[in-house]
Amino acid sequence: MHDGSHVTAAADKVWRHEQVAESLMGAHAVLPMQYGTLLASLDEVEGMLRRGYPMFVEDLARVRDHVEVGIRFMVLRKPGAVAISATSGTSQLLQSDSLAKSPMAPGTAYLRTKLTKEHERRDRHRVDLELVRKTYRILAEHAAAAKLDDDRGDAPAVSAAFLVHRGGLAAFKKLVARLADADRDLALLCTGPWPAYSFVSDHASQSMQRGGS
Amino acid sequence: MTIAIDGAPEGGAKVLHAPEDQAILDRFAGALGEKRRELPQRIATDPDKVERDLARLVLSVIELLRQLLEKQATRRVESGALSAEEIERLGLTLMRLEARMGELKTAFGLQGQELTLDLGPLRDLVDCE
After folding, report:
1. Helix crossing, A106-140 with B47-79: angle to 10°?
2. Phi, psi of A38 (to 5 degrees)
């Protein structure tokens, strides 16, 4: 609950929020809310609890005895390691569009170079994502639920969240280490255990949307 | 190996697995935005620095716009909507703009990565290659 004034996202406050959630997690199933979720009054809290009841029950059943494990994937490729096929769709486009028909005047050559670089970047990104998805799928098979956030353009690291049973955490950790050792082109940074932030409904906003509609 | 996450309270190490190579860890840190190249939050009042800081700020904005123009131009070329003459004219304009930016960076002693704009959730929009 908050009076609507300015909320700061200082690291110590976020970690304090985390500590509170984790201290409750030890003994109970917890539906964590993101730090910074604001409700203006006790009435709003009560309204959210009332309206969100079916969601709470569903979410509690999903996360009980489970924790969230976060993984960031980063592809480690040496420069030039991805060869762009001359027959790939992008290369064909370069040969067939009006650039190819134009005489190679300086302005045209400049844009052609930029376009080639852009296509190479896209091809590299596609290959990187295929590698990440392959490893993600293996890990997801060993989790109760999983989410891959691979829709962030060409961000250098792709993140994923896995809902793992408490009893299976050690085995999941070993699997991560084994997969990291198996593929030297892919680095994995694995953190946890966290409250299951990624696997609960957004109670506050959903409840408020319903209440406001 | 024990690695703690920056800012975590004592005993708050939450890393279950991490690459052993420090250079790779640094790349993760960079990807997480922990090593941001920051624009000056204020223009320095030191007369020796004020010109460079101001130039850095202004050139960062211009570089962002230049790269956005370039991306838009390559999209238009890809769409096939431009004639050969239009492509040449557009390419020439962008080429000269890039050359001029290079001259200005040299004049103020600025490197490409110093002109990166961190736009938060929009990520780094300026390509520093």
Report:
1. 90
2. -115, 135
Question: Rounded to the nearest 10 degrees, how much is the dihedral formed by the CA atoms of A8, A9, A11, A17?
Answer: 100
What's the ipTM?
0.73
Q: Which of B63, B45, B41 is nearest to B108 (CA)?
A: B63
Which residue in B97, B77, B119, B115 sits closest to B127, CA to CA? B115
Pairing between strand B15-17 and A66-75? unpaired
Q: Taking the complete model, does pTM exceed 0.80, yes or no?
A: no
The three-state secondary structure class of A57 is helix
The residues pairing with A190 across neighbouring beta strands, listed in sequence order, are A71, B17
Determine which helix (DSSP H) or strand (DSSP E) holds B87, and give its type and residue range: helix B84-107
Torsion of CA B84, B89, B90, B92, to 10 degrees: 120
- Chain A contact for B70, CB < 8 A? yes
Q: Is B9 helix (H, G, I), strand (E, B) or coil?
A: coil
- Give every strand in the sheet of A145-149, ordered side by side: A145-149, A158-165, A66-75, A186-194, B15-17
User: At residue B83, what are phi and psi to the nearest 5 degrees?
Assistant: -80, 170
Token look-up 């769709």 returns: A89
10-residue mean pLDDT series, chain B (129 residues):
54 79 83 54 65 84 89 90 90 93 88 69 52
pLDDT digits (tens, 9 = 90+) for A98-120: 555 545 789 999 999 999 988 88
Asked whether the predicted pLDDT for residue A172 surpasses 80, the reply is yes
- CB contacts, 8 Å: A109 with chain B: 91
C-beta neighbour count of A85 within 10 angstroms: 11
Nearest Cα of chain A lies from the Cα of B64 at a distance, in angstroms, of 16
What are the φ and ψ backbone dihedral angles of B37, each rounded to 5 degrees?
Answer: -85, 120
The single-letter code of the amino acid at A199 is F
Task: Provide CB contacts within 8 A for A177, sequence distance 6+.
Answer: B17
Neighbours of A126 (CB within 10 A): 12
A114–B18: do the CB atoms touch at under 8 Å?
A: no
